[in-house]
Design a protein that fits this description.
single chain; alpha/beta; 10 helices; binds thiamine diphosphate; binds magnesium ion
Length: 284
């Protein structure tokens, strides 16, 4: 296996994000985590939806799939099921994963495919020039909401915990060291690893800036029991947060393992010479 340097993951395209965008920190942390684990580029794929954050695959030298809005997860899961040997990392924004792709997120969490999902949350639709997203705060004003945004916020960490994602963490784009550890833990985890990242937008969201988020985030207490889902939910829910760190981690059968079991049972019932042609003959 080739020893990997951070520079080995540099894509041919220079990141097009604004100077100061939180996503630069996420890119740096992912590259570090991948180098620590000696992830090879030939068997790693980064899958994204659509958004500023979803431009991620262009900036990496791995395989990549820039899919359609909200569909990073089904594409990522399909890739993993087709070839479980590939490291599959899905990435995207709060709009991509919680609005149009919200349904895929909850079903991915409960099925537990062995993939990592990184959500860069800037509380806004940045690519389309600043509309409110499911994580925008009540009262936010944008060109589309000149008076105030009126819907309650989605809490992505609480959502992942509710649907039983087996690894749930939250990081902050301004703390690359912590982010590297959380992402590395997610890559190493055997199952669906969700990493929610507070990744401020410097252009369209002046409310949740780096300065403000740095002031209010706090690390989870060291004695937090990562196997206690109810306690993890209490921290996710805490009004005095947001907390960062590893909320929850348990080992449970993955989607691939459950399917392998079904396949072997089906093969057993139909005998060694099972063929799809024989099955089709029943419907002639
Ligand atoms: C099916 C579909 N609907 C809407 C859009 C328009 N659109 C592109 S990106 C986006 C939102 C992006 O927000 P987010 O996922 O948070 O990414 P960010 O740009 O903030 O990183 C929308 C609504 C689209 N491309 N496709
Ligand atoms: Mg966004």
């Amino acid at each position: 296996m080739k020893k990997m340097e951070i520079s080995d993951y540099k894509g041919k395209v220079k990141p097009s994000w604004c100077p100061g965008c939180g996503n630069h920190g996420v890119l740096a942390a992912l590259k570090k985590a991948m180098a620590n684990l000696e992830y090879q580029t030939h068997n790693t794929t980064i899958v994204s939806g659509i958004g500023c954050s979803s431009r991620f695959p262009f900036f990496m030298s791995t395989y990549g799939f820039h899919s359609i809005h909200g569909r990073a997860l089904p594409v990522a899961i399909g890739l993993k099921e087709a070839n479980p040997e590939i490291n599959v990392i899905a990435v995207g924004g709060d709009g991509d994963g919680l609005s149009i792709g919200g349904n895929h997120f909850i079903h991915a969490a409960r099925k537990n495919p062995n993939i990592t999902y990184i959500m860069m949350d800037n509380e806004i639709y940045a690519l389309t020039k600043g509309q409110c997203s499911p994580t925008s705060r009540i009262g936010t004003t944008t060109k589309c909401n000149p008076y105030a945004w009126t819907a309650d916020r989605i809490n992505p960490v609480l959502m992942a915990l509710s649907f039983n994602a087996s690894y749930v963490a939250r990081g902050y784009a301004g703390d690359i060291k912590q982010l590297e550890e959380l992402i590395q833990g997610g890559l190493e985890h055997h199952g669906f690893a969700f990493i929610h990242i507070i990744s401020p937008c410097v252009q369209y969201n002046k409310v949740s800036s780096f300065e403000k988020m740095k002031e209010i985030i706090k690390p989870l207490p060291e004695n937090h029991n990562i196997e206690d889902r109810v306690n993890a939910m209490a921290y996710a829910f805490a009004p005095n947060g947001p907390y960062t760190g590893l909320f929850y981690k348990v080992q449970r059968p993955t989607y691939e393992e459950r399917y392998a079991d079904i396949i072997s049972k089906a093969k057993h019932l139909s005998g060694e010479n099972y063929s799809i042609e024989d099955v089709m003959k029943q419907f002639k």
